Predict the structure.
Amino acid sequence: MNETHGDTIMRVENLAVHFPMGGGLFGGQRRWLHAVDGVDLELKRGECLGLVGESGCGKSTLALSLLGLQAPTRGRIILDGHDVSGSAGKDRKDRARFAQMVFQDPYSSLNPRQTVRTTLEAPLRLHGVTSRSEIDDRIADVLKHVGLRTDQAERFPHEFSGGQRQRIGIARALILRPKIIILDEPVSALDVSIRAQIINLLLELKETLGLSYVMISHDLGVVEHMSDRVAVMYLGRIVETGGWETIFTNPQHPYTRALIAAIPDPFSRTTGVKITGEIPNPLNPPTGCGFHPRCPEARDICRIPPAPLLEAIAEDHLVRCRRVGEFA
Amino acid sequence: MKIRANLLIGGVLFATVILAGILAPLLAHTDPVMDANLMFAEEPPGGEFWFGTDAQGRDIYSRVLYGARISLTVGIVSQLINTVIGVCLGLSAGYWGGWWDDFVNGLTNLMLAIPSLIFALAIMAILTPGLTSLLIALGLTNWSFTCRLARASALSLKSQGYVQAAKVLGYGDIRIMLTQLLPNMLGPIIVIGTLGMGGAVLAEASLSFLGLGIRPPFPSWGSMLSDARDQITTAPWISVFPGLAIFMTVLGLNLLGDGLRDILDPQSRTRRA
Amino acid sequence: MSQKPLLEVENLRIDLSIGDTKFPAVQDVSFTIGRGETLGLVGESGCGKSITALALIGLLRHPLSIGGGIIRFDGREIQSLSPAQMRQLRGDRISMIFQEPMTALNPLSPVGRQIAEMFVLHKGASWRDAERQAVEALASVRVPAPERRVKDYPHQLSGGMRQRVMIAIALACSPDLLLADEPTTALDVTVQAEILDLIRDLCAERGTAVLMISHDLGLIANMCRRVGVMYAGRIVEERAAEDVFRAPSHPYTSGLVASLPLLGARARQGRHRLMEIAGVVPPVAAFPAGCRFHPRCRASTEICVAADPEVTLLPNGGSVRCHHHE
């Protein structure tokens, strides 16, 4: 399984990121936090993969290791046929030309002391583009793509509104012409009336520039609208993955169902099936299926180790649940 | 924009001292070292000697002017050394963390535990007294506050999205520290540096007063005060004028530091509309 | 309605002082809430929804101040009350929960004591009785093992648990009105669903009226019977919740509804390009003249620039503030 399909741009195999907790100078038991615990993913060219889950599910850590900012404990990341699973940092510069990121907060994600031009020009120079005319052309080009005027390049971030700042953040992610962009909650910090502009822009850019997205979001409406495929994460593992239509119209894992039911329905004042309890401490995960303490469908079998496997129940639909066949 | 009073007064005081130092050869009436004349010893301030003369009959006005050169050199150069050391250690410790951070923290705490003047005294005792030794002694002993400030700023800035973005764009660590972190922490560091300059001027005066700084007969405000000890009741002007010069310089630097803090504080800038 | 409403707000104006100039951050805002009723205020950041709630509970601080209008709670004008009378009212008859419960709870006091304080303060209970009632209050907000949890400090609890404690404090004295300002924005979706259920159930049980404030139109429509849509310091449309999504009347509301990627929409109708509302939300100091939405409005004409639209009553109940309402 070394070679990748022609249409697969990124493949993640059995990726795990464990953090040491405690221990240190005065002893104490050193424990391991399994932030990402054996994740398999495949991103196809031109696709948007929605990564869904609640806080602490490991989606942000996963994104950092895809970008080379967090060394995986084990597993492989294959970008466009090349295994890049080395330690974090070393290949940062190479990976920068391949994968970029758009951040959640348009305020803290731009350096307040750099003009838009500096923000866009410095990475180009770092990556060997030195001719003045080429730099100017590429900056003008990327600004046009995100809907900003060239003369706005001389301004500082505080002169822009939140939506425009997010456009600058997108321009920065595009300037090195990457193939993959990780979108980390790209609209959740924006005003509601501005979100549609950015969502439309991202979808257009995906088409015109042939980009592939990994989008982290907790807003299921946005995920449904933008994604081609969806992966649902819980406690460091993928619990269900499939095409967007499968996940949103025929969810099988009780957690996916609960997530969808938890979104308030504006057309009725009733509520769906709810789950109770809180996300368990990842330092002390439940035995067996990680979701069983909150699962309305849990039986004794769910508490017995090992954790259930992610199994295909249909074409391109994988679910990690022992009882998946038993409920309608 | 309204100019703040502290910035204005501090700036004027500091500029006066700088001008006095630079223009000393033009403004001075006599050579500060050579023109001793016991005929005019301990003359009170008056027509010929504006600030009076000292026990050796040297013109205090001229010596105070030349003293500004020494005080400013010590203040600026030693504080520059402190700032560079403090920023390098603090910035890298805050950004990298881990054992390096532990080490720098330990070193900083050690420096804070020893009174810096005692430390400088010890260094001066080992080195031969003189301007260079003084610069080294004061430049190596006052970086702990700058270091702590740089470390704390780096800790809070490194989680900002734009630092993450720079990593994603393939920037190396040193480049990130210099282009992303440093410009955003410079304001408070300049403030601490300016305030520290006043401290260095005082420290030079103290060391020279104790006889471990600038050696006589070269005019330093501290050594002038030291020389004037015996005449403090009989000829108070010998100590009053260098003392006043120290007071004005340190006050000017402190006001300037406060004023800079006001305008460099990011809180006072317009942020989210 | 034979009975007088619980809360009447008439032409409320809230001023924001910048230097010597006062800008109306909220202007001509009027609404009523009956006993046990739920009203939602929805809008974007800076539209004035949160400061309206703060005005109701008498917590506006400089640079904000009430610049005019009447707030009548249970027949009494709130502005005429002394600070001591206002304190009596707060927590006992009107209470409030916030977005970030950590900042609203005292970090140095066990949560049980913070709940018990409400009974001591407002009901004259002894501390011993109050502590016992605090356990019951925690149980009522569905905190497991409440007799042990009362001894916990806020930092020992998760975000969801802290918000439950806040709700327990807010509802301790069975107030007539609960102000909920983005109570679930900081929480995960599954926890949000539980907290919303809790607010809905407890308030229905005790007959507590709710003013729910959020930027999430879907959440407001789901939780409230009536919805007021705020834009740039005004209520631009007030409707029954179900009408807001089905037949929005103000161009801002219809623009918002069309711009939302609603869950299930793509499965039903395929992927459409989302409607965009052009421009940006204006800051308080730069609210436009005339209709405040006109620079961003598709239907805008000369009259929208020239004249401020009056409130128009709609035939099926509700009201709208627009020259060209649908």
User: Anything to note?
Assistant: Residues 71-241+257-267 of chain B form a domain with the MetI-like fold fold (CATH 1.10.3720.10). Confidence is low (pLDDT under 50) at residues 266-273 of chain B. Residues 1 and 237 of chain B are 42 Å apart (CA to CA).
